[in-house]
Amino acid sequence: MSVLIKFLKVLFGIFKNPTEPTEVVLEEKIGREETTVRNLNDKIPGARNFKYKEFIKSDTALRRGIDNTPTEEHWQNIEKLAVNVLQPVRDNLGRLNITSGYRSRKLNKATKGSKRSLHCFACASDIESEKVSLLYLLEWIYNNCEFRELIAEFFPGGWVHVGYVEGWNVKKLKLKDKDHDYKLVSLDYIKNLYK
After folding, report:
1. Nearest-angstrom CA–CA distance, 186 and 178
2. CB crowding 61-95: b at 16 or more within 10 Å, else e
3. What is the DSSP secondary structure assignment for residue 119, as one 8-state letter?
4. Which residues pair with 51 in a beta bridge?
5. How are beta strands 172-176 and 149-153 bridged, if at all?
6. pLDDT average per 10 residues of sequence, the chain (195 residues)
7. 128: closest CA among 105, 109, 164, 101?
8. CB-based contacts of 69: which residues, under 8 Å, 6+ apart?
9. pLDDT at position 179, please?
10. In whole angstroms, how far apart are CA 17 and each of 1, 10, 22, 26, 123?
11. Pairing between strand 159-163 and 149-153?
12. How far is CA 114 from CA 96, 111, 159, 182, in A?
């Protein structure tokens, strides 16, 4: 069983009485996993419009000297996200900008990301479109893709967060802004709010 699936089981209460030590053990295991090198300029197989480097680039990591190198499992998660969500979006809506992809635990802490962030498992990206509004981008993904979570973050000028976890895609739609703290919402709720 992958580290990600174990983490999700602890996170969502599938194991009885998850404890802090369980999370520590998972973090230690992640830290010891073997890293496989990818040519960062290579296109991702099955996602011809995306290169590996787009998913690990971080100005914060560069400025602070934080290692943001994915493990093999992370690389595979990046590939699944790109193939199953981002490439279909790109094919139908045009160019996407990935503003945040994989984040090592240290980088996630530096950026004040959630301790439960799918970014730490390379299962999520924050994206923007060069051609369509964020609302249209969100709606298209909601209606046409499988995803674990889809978050409208700080609309109308923010970004779309999309998470894809093979075998765990339950299509949770959330809203994060000054009035909503990752609140589960309907698509109609968001559309009415940001007409």
Report:
1. 18
2. beeeebebebbebbbbbbbbbbbbbbbbbbeebee
3. G
4. 43
5. parallel
6. 54 41 36 71 97 97 96 97 98 97 97 95 97 97 98 96 96 96 96 91
7. 101
8. 35, 56, 104
9. 93
10. 19, 9, 10, 16, 25
11. antiparallel
12. 24, 9, 16, 11
The order of strands in the sheet holding 124-129 is: 96-100, 124-129, 159-163, 149-153, 172-176, 181-184
Half-sphere exposure of 100 (CA within 13 A, CB side): 23
The amino acid present at 103, given as its one-letter code, is R
- Rounded to whole angstroms, the Cα distance separating 146 from 167 reads 10
Q: Which domains does the chain have, with CATH numbers?
A: 33-193 (3.30.1380.10)
Tokens standing for 68?
């943001």
For residue 90, give the H/E element and its range: helix 87-93
